[in-house]
Each structure stands twice: as structure tokens, then as C-alpha cells.
Specification:
mainly alpha; 2 domains; three-stranded antiparallel sheet; two-stranded antiparallel ribbon; 8 helices; 6% strand
Amino acid sequence: MYILLGFIIFIIWIILMVVLHKAKLQAWFEVIGSIGLFIFGMVYIRPLAVEPLSRAVAAIAGIFGRLTGTFQNFFRYGIIFIPTRDSGNLTLQIDFECSGIIEILAYLSLLVFFKVYDAFERIVLSVLGVFYIIMANALRIILICEIIHFGGAGAYYIAHTYIGRIFFYFVSVVLYFYVFTKAQVVRMKVGNFRYNIGGKKKAVAAAAAAADSDKAGETAGNTYNRIEADKSWGDDVSQEELDSFKKESDSLYSASDKDKNGQT
């Protein structure tokens, strides 16, 4: 029954995605797509991924525990045994919440529909992002274990509920900033100007962006002269592009002179 219901909802989601795509409602396409993919991931992928992720996190954190002697892991069971300074002992089980599956599914669901990147870039960032989240989660577990070891079993609540979560949220914000926010800003295009170009291309774009100003020709001419004078100033413009820009700069410069002389 649940499988059939899930299949029907999946078909409805696919139809809705097709309609939004054909209607060119890109924002809604990305939002509905990400939400739907996350829900299906939580229903069908989460039960299969929680245990392997828990073992992986426990194994990675256990390396640090063995090196420092502050805690011991039983990664096959997703369990960490922590001896404390107050002669007490505490067993930490890495379950659904601590496995990082929610964060991984949320990240992948957003990235799949993030059209700033091409398909290959999204695949690479998916692999790197999952690895980053797993390592960040392992560091969170290490931090919690160290606080419990030195602070005693009574420090568990503060370490797990506040310190561990704040740390993990911080590293997650760093990931989202570089993968989503910065990429969106750097690759966005406004008119003839865009940020994701370096060296000569940035100068060319800057001059082109000044096309409506009084100094458009002067700006373009100076830009071309600087490119010609400094051959090491980036290598991302072909000679064909440079020649084309020279013609544009000459045209802008000529138009600028006419405007100054009151000609039409």
C-alpha cells in the first residue's frame, strides 16, 4: 500500500516538474524539485544509508580516540565508549540524527537542481560535499567525546545539544556559502558584466559595461592598451576576441569624440 502510494506521488511529482519546466518557471522548478527529492530521499534512501553512515562516522572519529586514548569506538555497531575523568563511563550511540543523513540529503537535493553548475560540476561537488559533511560530522563527534571525557558524564547534554550542534551548523554554513551563495554571486551576469572572468576578460567586460557612459570610448581604449602593454595580464582572451574588442573600442572611442564635438 505504502509502496503504491509512494509511486503515485512520485509520478505526480514528475508531471509537476515537467509542467514547471515547460512553463519556464525556474524558481518553482528548483524549489519543488529540491523538496520532492529530499522527501523521497528521506523515505527510501535514509533507511538504507543510516547504518553505513553511522559506522563510517564512528570509524573516523575512533581513529582520533585511539591516538589520544580518550575514547574507544565499536564502529560495527556505531557505538563509542567514553571513559570520563569523574570515574564514570558513557556510551554514545551514533543513530539517525548523528549519522548526518539529513544534512547529506538536503545538500544533494539542493545541488541537483542548482543550475549555476553544469552536470559534471554537480557530480564532483556532490562527492566532495558528502565527504565534507561526513568529516564534519566525525569532528563533531570527536568534540563531543573530548568534552565528555574531560568534563564528565554531566557535560553530555551541553556538549551534544549545544556545542556539537553549533559547531556542525557553522561548518555547514561554510559549505553552503562556498557551494551555493558564492557561486551564485560570482557566476551571475548583469547586462554585459559578470564576475566569473579573470585577467583580460574582466577588463574587457568592465569596459563593455561602461558603454552607456560618457567615457565609454576612453575606457575601452585604455583597457585595450593595457592588455597590449602587459602580456602577462591574464591569458584568458584569444587573439580573435582581442581583435574584436579593438574594433569595439575604436567604435566607442569614435562615438565618444562625436558626442564631445556635438556631432550626431
